[in-house]
Amino acid sequence: MKILFLLKSLEIGGLEIVTANLANKFVLEGHDVVIWAFYKEEHSIRNRIDEKIPVIWGDRYIVNEKNVYSLRETLLNYKIEIVINQLGLPYKPARLLKKAKNGLDIKTIAVCHSNPAMNGKIMNIDIKKELTSNIVKKSLLSVTRLLFKFITSASMRYVYNNSDYYMVLADIYKQTFVEFIGVKDSAKLLSLPNPVTIDSSDYNPYTCIKEKKILYVGRLENVAKRVSRVIEIWKYLEKTFPDWKLIIVGDGPEKEHLENLVNQYNLKEVQFEGFKIPNEYYKKCSVLLLTSEFEGFPLVLSEASSYGTIPVAYGSFPAVYDIIDNEKNGLIVLGNKGFDAAVMAEAVSMLMKDEQKRNEMSYAAYKYSKHFSMDAIYKRWLKLFETIL
């Protein structure tokens, strides 16, 4: 099959890495793949993409004649049969694609890589509402949120109406999508999770010895990820478990604030590792923490699981129940009326105290992660391709 991925750019990010891995797998299985991106980033993941895959760069993030011509020429020259639009929220890529494939028999699949009803901008408004006690400001922010929700749903509705199929990352998001955009006909709505994007073939659950380490992997920011919560949890645990360590892998705008929190609480067993390839950390650490206020389908949970690192997540997003079978291959923690560091710390402490439970849950996590392996997800993509062509 001849497949084109449509992207905004090839910057270093989760969506782009997922695309690169899927594209490489499709080529490995004998398909022809092309990537078309609106613009070229100075720091991109082109080196992660098979050299056999052409990458075509557009002219800025805009719908203009130059981009329409470039994309149409690409569709024609490479005899594309299926376009996977990895930008299922903004209307611009769908509008460009509609113009470029006019009159051509090409199937399009748009993919929403987040919770359809929540994103960073909406969450930012919610945070500002929480932080202000001014009634006028709260009212203005409420109106702003409604306006932004209307714009977002209208944009997604346009993408849905102008695609042959629309994909969300979990079954539970289907109903969320239907309710959020007000679609009446959901026949072309599909669900398929992203694959694990790291190679964990070097992990052997029978020989690998886990260390007494708790891990966070991800961007250090405090809108969606709320990484400060990880420090708040550790504050409850460090004195009780002096032989354990907290390892933080990642970088971002909140790093200095987090380091200040560690100093403020006089915590001694916290290591900031910076931006690193996480494989070796997954292999060694026993537990992974995820305390985000919202997520779509976080790869970090299935990545950690593939190395037998037990995922413990705050149950703030619906897809977490597709990834973790609570108390079997990980823990989902719900606070009292929102996040509660003490409640989550108590859940983690139960694992820290019980080595046998950790071993059992670690193996269960490893086994369950196979549902999200590249081979498993590729087979589902292939079945979809064979159905729609």
UniProtKB/TrEMBL annotation:
Boundaries of every Glycosyltransferase subfamily 4-like N-terminal domain copy: 12-197
Residue span(s) of domain Glycosyl transferase family: 210-367
MF annotations from Gene Ontology: glycosyltransferase activity
Cross-referenced InterPro entries: Glyco_trans_1, Glyco_trans_4-like_N
Pfam families with a match to the protein in the record: Glyco_transf_4, Glycos_transf_1
Gene3D superfamilies linked: Glycogen Phosphorylase B
Protein name: Uncharacterized protein
